[in-house]
Amino acid sequence: MSKKPRRRTDYWDDPRAPAATSRKPSASVVVRNHRGELLLLRRAGSGLWTIPTGALKKKETVTACAIRECREETGLVVELTGLVGVFSDPRHRIAYPDGEVRVPVNVCFYGQPVDGELATDSESDEATWVAPEALDDYDIHPAIRRRISHALYGTVPHVDLTAAGREDGMGAGPGCRRGVLVFRGCWGRCGIRVVCGARSAAWDPGGAREVTLTG
């Protein structure tokens, strides 16, 4: 059953944005076909183009959420092939008519279609494949364009480490000038080390490969 669309207004780094009232997890997917084109959806109402994305349900994982949202919003069954990043910058706010102002915490994945026929649900009025070089011809919200850019040009999974509006550190207090995440053996067991100034905290269940991420 298709979901009833919920009208919303997205803000990015906008001083006119209302104060946040909630934070909720969600998942999204940058889906690319065999030609390297990206799947975009045009939202009914706003006319903005976006990628498949939606809120996490209570009894599902973020990967299950990502796959479900793709199937519901596009008609396609996708295989998740990697992690684009975790996007939690509070400069992105979503205002709903009922008064909720949500700051999303979004886990974004790479995906490729493996089955299904391209379609839309009640939330979108068009779905299309777009070549990366043609993205500038589409009206895409900055928060979504940010995920797409990391998917296209990032070399490691992105994680928002800095406080809003800062690019020089994690915003975790005095002496914290730089943040580093180390992921060990991801997609299998994953260890994370956070380094802040001279202090560090580690959880390392094992694994060999390291990828270092900075804010």
Q: Would you spell out the secondary-structure blueprint of this structure?
A:
Blueprint: E1 9-12, E2 22-31, E3 38-43, E4 49-50, E5 53-55, H1 62-74, E6 76-87, E7 92-95, E8 101-116, E9 124-130, H2 142-153, E10 158-159, E11 179-184, E12 191-196, E13 199-203, E14 210-214
Parallel strand pairs: 2-8, 6-10
Antiparallel strand pairs: 1-7, 2-5, 3-4, 3-9, 6-8, 7-8, 11-12, 11-14, 12-13
Description:
- It is a single chain.
- The chain is mainly beta and 215 residues long.
- The protein has 2 domains: 9-154, Alpha-Beta Complex (Nucleoside Triphosphate Pyrophosphohydrolase); 161-215, no CATH class.
- Helices cover 12% and strands 41% of the residues.
- The chain has helices spanning 62-74, 142-153; strands spanning 9-12, 22-31, 38-43, 49-50, 53-55, 76-87, 92-95, 101-116, 124-130, 158-159, 179-184, 191-196, 199-203, 210-214.
- The strands form 3 sheets. Strands 1, 2, 5, 6, 7, 8 and 10 form a 7-stranded mixed β-sheet that branches. Strands 13-12-11-14 form a 4-stranded antiparallel β-sheet, with no helix packed on it.
- β7 and β8 form a beta hairpin.
- The chain is globular, with a radius of gyration of 18 Å.
